[in-house]
Write a structure and sequence with these properties.
This is WRKY19-like zinc finger domain-containing protein. The chain has one helix spanning 65-73. The protein has 85 residues and is mostly loops.
């Protein structure tokens, strides 16, 4: 895409401009994160805090940003579980 500075994922396009792989759920046009699914349909990692369904990443030690910040600031009790992927 002319003027776009993001890295191309596929078809010479970044995720924002239609690059990457489309979610395998019928009718969804979002880009996959993992296992052929977008975030909405269960792709990617989820927060390890019990009951939390927010997206997580390795940079936040597999917690969502909210729980990572709470734990870092000592504002919550650590209650989490290992999710099997």
């Amino acid at each position: 895409m002319p003027g776009c500075k993001r890295g191309a994922k596929s078809k010479g396009l970044c995720w924002s401009h239609g690059g990457g792989t489309q979610c395998t759920v019928q009718g969804c046009d979002k880009t996959t994160i993992s296992r052929g699914l977008c975030w909405t349909h269960g792709g990617g990692k989820r927060c390890m805090m019990d009951g939390c369904k927010r997206p997580a990443s390795e940079s936040t030690h597999n917690f969502c940003q909210y729980h990572h910040d709470e734990l870092r600031n000592g504002d919550t009790t650590l209650v989490y579980f290992e999710r099997s992927l």
